[in-house]
Amino acid sequence: MDPVTTAPLTLLLGPEAPAVLATALDGYRGRLHALRVASVAVQPTGAAVVQYRADVERADGSRTAETLAATTGGRIPSGAAVLSGEHDGRPVEVGVWRWPQDPALPALAAATDPDRLRDALAAAGLPRTGPPRVRVRAYRPGRRAVLQVDGGGPRLYLKVVRPAAVDALVARHGLLAGPAPVPPVLAATADGLVVLPEQPGTPVRALLGGGAPLPSPADLDALLDALPPALAGLPSRPGHLGRVRHFTDVLALTAVTAPAEREALDALAAALEATDAGAPATVPVHGDLHDGQLLAADGSVTGLLDVDTAGPGHRVDEWATLLAHLSVRAPHERDPGPVRRYGATLLAHAEERVDRAALRPRIAAAVLGLATGPFRVQQPGWAAHTRARLGLAGRWLG
User: Which Pfam families match (predicted)?
Assistant: First the structure.
């Protein structure tokens, strides 16, 4: 690996990280006692965003668990505390912050404060009869957060995004809500807060293995057919085959560092890049369709979530993404049978709808993308899980 590229990452994951993160606590004289890496998002350039769980002693002597973040390279948002110096003899800059003062997500601090949130919801015409209770469902530092709001009224979900992303997200919901079971936007603010109602149903991911009826392949086809044509006029994103080199570069910086493993990874990437992608029709797509994005009840699809990626694309990539997620998930189930059977049912249907020779390389490329996950979330045994996913990608390609 190029030391120029990886120096910032080794700094954020190495023994010097606590000294760097201590800067985020200076504003209230906090003292860092322990630090654990929770997630690592890496770009092929080496720029990284690392999320930490921290044990902090406050000025009054109390101890608290906090979330801290650090970022390098072009990922440093305006407003972060920035440290400049050298690491391994090379200049490096690091931006740091503590939850919920994410400088890229200015709406986050108010969204996580019950009093400020109650005022914001009332101002948006969504008053609560009691103090809201906020539960964090997801947080990607510098990118977005998803919060669940209970108490004082119907359950709501808040998406906190960068201010520049609000209009596009609201527009996608406006196009999709109605034609598809996508929640409408109840309110949105210029600083990045988007308020959504709860959709009925249970995530398909939670239903798998529980014996409940699941959406049929025909139901999923009907869902995709319902996506409005206007989505095809939005900006496009590359499919998984178009992102193979991105996935490979990230893996080479993080989880695949041994020479023999890197050689096998390069061979897999070369085989995927040599695949004839063909020219499938461009149609409206969700862009990240998987079992966690689908809600269902009594075997029918009742909700489609996270439409940030909706736009023009190829139907074969929708099936490939869903099948890749199922195939990666199955080995981790106590009883993998239901997941594998559902995946087999969907695969048989998809191969009747699209060219098998086009589908399987795209599943392999999607699995390659998912191989970056174990390191990113710091899953215990991430090296073995990464190898297993790379082997699975190879089998799909074969």
Answer: APH
CA distance 200 to 187: 19
pLDDT in tens, 362-380: 999 999 999 999 999 999 9
Strands 156-161 and 187-188, how do they pair? Answer: unpaired
Q: What SS3 string covers 156-217?
A: EEEEEECHHHHHHHHHHHHHHECCECCCCCCEECCCCEEEEECCCCEEHHHHCCCCCCCCCH
- The structure tokens listed for 175 are 């196009």
* CA 107/CA 298 separation, integer angstroms: 37
Q: Mean pLDDT over all residues of the chain?
A: 94
Ramachandran category for residue 298: left, alpha or beta (phi over 0 → left; psi -120 to 50 → alpha): left
In terms of phi and psi (left: phi > 0; alpha: psi -120 to 50; beta: otherwise), the region of 79 is left
Return the closest-CA partner of residue 220 out of 93, 366, 67, 345: 345
Overall average pLDDT of the 351-362 stretch:
93
Measured CA to CA in angstroms, residue 184 lies from 91, 131, 174, 188, 365 at distances of 47, 24, 7, 11, 32
The CATH code of the domain at 108-197 is: 3.30.200
Look up residue 47 and give its DSSP letter: -
| Both structure tokens of 131 | 């103090």
Judged by phi (left if over 0) then psi (alpha if -120 to 50, else beta), residue 381 lies in: left
pLDDT at residue 2, as a whole number = 43
pLDDT of 22 reads 86
pLDDT tens readout for residues 147-166: 999 999 999 999 999 999 99
| Cα 198 to Cα 173: distance, rounded to the nearest angstrom | 14
- pLDDT tens track for 186-221: 999 999 999 999 999 999 999 998 889 999 999 999
Determine how many CB atoms are found less than 10 A away from the CB of residue 198.
15
Look at residue 102 in the predicted model and tell me its pLDDT.
97
For residue 208, give both structure tokens: 């798998």
CB 55 within 8 A of CB 34: yes
Least confident residue range of 98-112, 114-128, 268-282, 337-351: 268-282
398 Cβ neighbours under 8 A, 6+ residues apart = none
Question: How does DSSP assign 77-94, residue by residue?
Answer: -TTSEEEEEEETTEEEEE
Class of CATH domain 202-397: alpha beta
pLDDT score recorded for residue 105? 98
